[in-house]
Amino acid sequence: MKATEEISWALLSAMKQTNETFFLTDSDGIILHVNPAFEKLTGYSHEDIKGRKPNILRSGEHSTEFYKDMWDTLKAGLPWSGRLINRRKDGSKYTEELRVCPVKNDAGMVKYFFAALRDITKELTLESQLLQSQKMEALGLLSGQLSHDFNNLLTIVIGSTEVVLESTKKNTTNHVLLEGILKNSKEYSLLIKQLLIFARRHDSVIKAMDLNSMLSDIRPLVKTTLSASIKLDYRLEEKLKTAKADPEQLKQVVINILLNARDAMPDGGTLTLKTENITLTDGAVHFLKAGEYALLTISDTGSGIPPEVIGHIFEPFFTTKPKGKGTGLGLSTAYGIIENHNGKILAKSEPGKGTAFYIYLPTA
What we know:
Elements: H1 2-17, E1 21-26, E2 31-34, H2 36-42, H3 46-49, H4 64-75, E3 80-87, E4 93-104, E5 110-119, H5 121-166, H6 173-198, E6 207-209, H7 211-217, H8 219-225, E7 230-235, E8 243-245, H9 247-264, E9 269-280, E10 291-300, H10 307-310, H11 330-340, E11 344-350, E12 354-362
Parallel strand pairs: 7-9
Antiparallel strand pairs: 1-2, 1-5, 3-4, 4-5, 6-8, 9-10, 10-12, 11-12
Helix pairs in contact: 5-6, 6-11, 9-11
């Protein structure tokens, strides 16, 4: 008996001291014991949750049938494993890999359920970020090759049209038609240049620059771009570190984002431009290298972006605007520019509350 008690004590001590998350229930699913790792993950203390069932963690993300299948498996004396999205005490959600093992007595009856779980939220986030980066890289390669070919063709069209225009009389039908061809060709040429920027096939003049000064310089332009009903709020870090960037391209990034923010606030709102210094560890932000960065945040109080849309906003030609109201290249161009700077641009949004763009730039 003493040996059994010692083993039980050793197992409980191991559960308390390990970083792995465990809990134990009786055959009806009533929680008997949780370890400190469980308390840390869920926010529930041992006293909070003892005597309750694990359904206190339910997030509403799974169907009744899902839980019924799980419980039927366990009641049959079989182990169950799978992924769950659960809710912490503070209301935040997390994804876990859960393994539940029935513990039987000598008669083969289930007396307890022992559960081991692992929080995989960060892993899934990194996996999603990696897939998104790979997709954008593939789009960049495809866009770059197509744009390069079209650019060569348009160069010939524009050059030939200009030569023929010089030999035709003004105000004639042919002259007017050729002017139309030239105008449209030049417009498409500009679109292709934007695609080449997205594909990172565009020369940049990256140098040490004062991000705050650039933002101050374009303030009159920003005010002109925005409607009078939009309040402009600058929050610039006084001791901001020097960024490594192409000033002209960075201006284009800011203007492209501002135009989207303006369109998201037709009835007015607040547009905030904020700069700050930030130190990142490896992988802290979408695979950026560890180091010092200047962070520019551009946020609005507009209509926001639906969750099913936000994953596509940096893709070329993707737009939610009516036909003829946008090319769908503004944000993809911004993405290409920042990637070319060895930085990162990310977006977070909540429908009805607004959108924020986070631009990380390496410092000099």
